[in-house]
Prior knowledge:
Bound molecules: zinc ion
Pfam family, one: AstE_AspA_cat
Cofactor: Zn(2+)
InterPro entries: AstE_AspA_cat, DoeB, N-alpha-Ac-DABA-like, N-alpha-Ac-DABA_deacetylase
Low-confidence stretches: none
Shape: globular
Number of helices: 6
Protein name: N-alpha-acetyl diaminobutyric acid deacetylase DoeB
GO molecular function, one term: hydrolase activity, acting on carbon-nitrogen (but not peptide) bonds, in linear amides
Amino acid sequence: MxxxxxxxxPISATVDFEAEGVQHGFLRLPYSRDDSAWGSVMxxxxxxxxxxxxxxxxxxxxxxxxxxGPIALFxxxxxxxxxxxxxxxxxxxxxxxxxxxxxxxTSPIDKGNMNRSFPGRPDGTVTEKIADYFQRELLPLADIVxxxxxxxxxxxxxxFCAAHILPDKEQEARAFELVKAFGAPWSMKMLExxxxxxxxxxxxxxxxxxxxxxxxxxxxxxxxSAGIAKRGVRNVLRAAGILKGAVETSKTEWLDMPDGDCxxxxxxxxxxxxxxxxxxxxxxxxxxxxxxxxxxxxxxxVEIHARMDGIFTxxxxxxxxxxxxxxxxxxxxx
Length: 334
Ligand SMILES: [Zn+2]
C-alpha cells in the first residue's frame, strides 16, 4: 500500500454504519469552488440495519447517465424497513453524484470515469476521492456488492445481470447464484474490455461477492427495465439472507462472452444502420450494421460483420457513430 493511502479520506459520513434502524444521510466531500468557497459534494446514502447478519452494498450512478440503478435504489431506500430484514443494507443510488446530477457518464468536475478510477486517491480529484472512500471504507464493510449499470447515452443492452469468471471458484459460484436470483431476462458470464481501475475488480480482489447489470440504455430507463431492476435488487437481498421471503423465480437465458470476437468496433465515422435488433441470432460473417458516409451522396456504406455466431446483446446508440466506437456486442447462449 502506497503512502498516499495511509492518509484519511476527506469524506465524512453523516450516518453511523453500526447504528440500528434506518438512516438517510450523506457522504460529504469538501469541494471548494467558485460558487461555494467552503462547499461540499453531498452524496446521498441510506443505511438500514437490523441485528447481526450479512452486509449488502448497493450502488447505482457509477456512470451518471444510467438510470435503472438509481430508480431502483432511491425506491428501495425509501421503502425498505428494518423489520423486513436481518443484517445491513448500505445504499448509494448515485455513486458518482456530480456525474449523475449533470446527466453525464463522467464527472463534469474532473472528467473522472468512476469505473476507471479505483483504487482512487484520498488526495486526488473529486472522482478519485469518492473511489478511495469506497475502496477503504465501504467495500470492507460489505459481504455482497451489487453495482447497477446500463448502456448510458451511447450504448443499448439486452437487460442482463452479470458476474465475472474468477480465479477463486467458490467466490465465482456465489456470485453466479446471486445473478440467478436477480432474475433478469438474461444472465451473463461477462468479459471486460479493460478491467483496470474498475470498482468490480476492486471488490473482487477484496474477496467480495460482486454482481453487476446492464439493463438497457440510450440515456433513459423504460417501465420494463426499471421493473427488472426493482425486482432484481430485492431478489438479491432475499438470496443473501438479508430480506425475508423467497426469491421470486423467473426464466433467465444464460449468455457467455468467450473472447474479444464478441466485440465489433467501428472503423469509420458516419450514420449507423443496424441490420439486426437486440436479441436476434446472428451468424459469423453476416452484416450486423452498415456505416453510411455522411459527407456526400453516392458513397458506399462500410459493413460491420459479426466475428462469431451469437445473440445480438448490445449496440451503439444513438444514430451517429465515430471510428473507435463499440458498434455491436455478441454473446453465446449457454
Ligand atoms: Zn456503466
